[in-house]
Amino acid sequence: MANIYVQFQDLSGWRNSVTMPDSSSPQRILIEMQSVQKMHPDHRVRCADENGRMIDKL
Question: I want to staple 58 with a disulfide (CB 3.0 to 4.6 A). Which of 13, 45, 49, 50 is the partner?
C-alpha cells in the first residue's frame, strides 16, 4: 500500500506533516491539508505521493 504526504515548506525544504494511505478520500486529504495550513499559516502546503509528485496544493 502506497502513502501520500501532506507537507509544508520551510527554509530547509518540504517537510512531512501527515502521512495517509493513498486510498484516502479527496475530502479527507483537503481536511488534513487545511489542518496543516492552520498549524503553519506562513508556509506553503501541498500533498505529494511517495515519488514526490504533487497531488494538490493550497
Answer: 45
